[in-house]
Amino acid sequence: SSNLSLSDLLENIESTPRTDSVIYENMLNIYLHNAKKAQQATHLFNAYYFYAVYESEPKVMHEYTDSLTHYAKKTKSTSNIIKAYQTRSTVYYIEKNYKKSLEYELAALQLINKDKHSYEYHKTLYSIGLTHFYLQQYEDASDYFSIARSYFENTPDYNHLRGYMNSIRYEALTTSYLGNYVYSNELLKSADKKLPKIKKNGRALEKAYLDYVYGINLYHLKNNNESIKVLNGTLEEITKNEDYA
Questions:
Q1: Helix (H) or strand (E) holding 61
Q2: pLDDT of 16-34, one tens digit each?
Q3: What are phi and psi of 196, to 5 degrees?
Q4: What CA–CA distance (Å, rounded) separates 88 from 161?
């Protein structure tokens, strides 16, 4: 109801599934309306953030991220500004405007306190690596993946394990693109050792992506029959993941 306080509305939005689109959108509208009425910068920031990530049309997302950045700066909160820059980066990434995406990722990185928020910091390094990867700047990409991988490797929790697997897989792929197939295979061996720690429902896909890189390396190392066998073995999982590329 529109009589709820802004904090109550925020709590309701956070606990409502987005799949309930009619209720969710209605609550968002009330929240934004009330935040505007109260001229409450933090709540305006939150409202535009919810709108930006709920929307799927990049053109509209950009309008929300403009407001998001405006209110992030008004709140004078570093973490809000970081969030705004990262959200902008994501929208440009969706549009495949990797140069702009990189600009905002780097701007966010400047503001993240590496010692206090080292997980966020290294997650951002991984994202920067990905952007360089899509810009085909493989040496830069490889450096970022390598730093992220070394960090994620040393912490046992599951988020770090996922960060490690993503970083090492892309590091192996960029290393392969740079023509260093033997080192790429060494990275894949290290990743293979961690596979048993991946949750069962995600393990087969993770293995398929590692094998995909291995298959590419085998081809370049002139081991064609084995390469065909390995690549064929990855197809089912990758198709299930609807990864047409």
A1: helix 58-75
A2: 888 888 889 999 999 999 9
A3: -60, -20
A4: 27
Determine the Cα–Cα distance for residues 118 and 88; give it in Å rounded to an integer.
21
Q: How many residues does the chain have?
A: 245
HEC profile for 159-216? HHHHHHHHHHHHHHHHHHHCCCHHHHHHHHHHHHHHHHHCCHHHHHHHHHHHHHHHHH
Rounded CA-CA distance 56/46 in Å is: 18
Percent of the chain with pLDDT over 70: 99
> End-to-end CA distance of the chain, in Å?
45
Tell me how far apart the 2 most distant CA atoms of the chain are, in Å.
70
The model carries a pTM of: 0.85
**Of the candidates 168, 156, 152, the residue with the CA atom closest to the CA atom of residue 209:** 168
Name the amino acid, one letter, at 158.
Answer: Y
Q: Per-residue pLDDT tens for 37-69? A: 999 999 999 999 999 999 999 999 999 999 999
